[in-house]
Amino acid sequence: MKTDLIEKYAPILCGSTPPVVRDPRLLMDASGDVKIYYAPFECINPSARIVLVGITPGPTQMVNANNEARRTLQAGKSSREAIQAAKSVGAFSGEPLRSNLINQLNHWGFHKWLGLTDSADLFATSRHLVQTTSLLRYPVFVKDDDYRGSPDMTKHLLLRKYLLDNFAAEVEELKDAVFVGLGPQVQKVLDRLIQERVLKPDRVIGGMLHPSGNCTYRINYLVGDRSAPVPHATNPVPYDQGRRAFRERFVTA
């Protein structure tokens, strides 16, 4: 686990003013309207069996991770401990994001495959089974708004560099894990990485929705009894196909 970046930004994280969203003191890189900020998401769990893949840490995750790193460093703990604490607190944090994620994982049967009572254990007593990550490890904003996939990270020079330098390196390090793409934007990039032979197709599980609050009503429908009409802009087919393929391979085999 590399600690050079957190050591570089530690004086800011631990400064008199706590870091905020899009804190200019934490700006790592920029190209036009695209800006990349630091948050300590370098932790990699080599024993992970599943990797939950988002697009990029959002503002809530950025603040939560930086504040947890600040508390840990101010308590006199090491850079490695700060990175681990920040990742465990910040990754897919905030509601309804985490609940939306857990509801989908339970509906698919990840807890059964992993021998857990509930997929919520992945964020508590069974963290050793999961790696939480993003295609773009560090928080990305476009025109000071959340990055949602545009510009295309596989074609944008700066974003592609961060994609390959960080996410592709995680793929190499987590050789025995399967990667769960969260949402169609993530899946599109994973498919591209399969074409480029960065990832093998049998290591990717697709079909889940991104767990953001904007998708809550869709997720509630998909994991529920579905007696109501299909919600607007909801296509159950990719979700159901992904769930069926996962269960046939991992749960009912």
**Which segments are poorly predicted (pLDDT under 50) over 5 or more consecutive residues?**
none
Number of strands: 8
Overall morphology: globular
The second-level CATH architecture of the domain at 43-58 and 93-251 is 3-Layer(aba) Sandwich
Distance between the termini: 36 Å
Content of β-strand: 5-15%
Explain the overall architecture.
The protein has 253 residues and is an alpha/beta fold. It has a domain at 43-58 and 93-251: Uracil-DNA Glycosylase, subunit E. It has nine helices and eight strands. α2 packs antiparallel against α3 and α4 (97-108) packs parallel to α8. It is globular. The two termini are 36 Å apart.
Give keywords.
253 residues; four-stranded parallel beta sheet; 9 helices; 8 strands
Write the layout of secondary structure elements.
Elements: H1 4-13, E1 27-31, E2 34-37, E3 50-54, H2 59-74, H3 79-90, H4 97-108, H5 110-114, E4 130-134, E5 140-142, E6 145-146, H6 157-173, E7 178-182, H7 184-195, E8 204-208, H8 216-223, H9 236-251
Parallel strand pairs: 3-4, 3-7, 7-8
Antiparallel strand pairs: 1-2, 2-5, 5-6
Protein name: Uracil DNA glycosylase superfamily protein
Organism: Marinospirillum alkaliphilum DSM 21637
Task: State the gist of this model.
With about 250 residues, the protein is of the alpha/beta class. The chain has helices at about 5-15, 60-75, 80-90, 95-110, 110-115, 155-175, 185-195, 215-225, 235-250; strands at about 25-30, 35, 50-55, 130-135, 140, 145, 180, 205-210. The strands form 2 sheets. A 4-stranded antiparallel β-sheet has the order 1-2-5-6, with no helix packed on it. It has a 4-stranded parallel β-sheet with strand order 4-3-7-8.
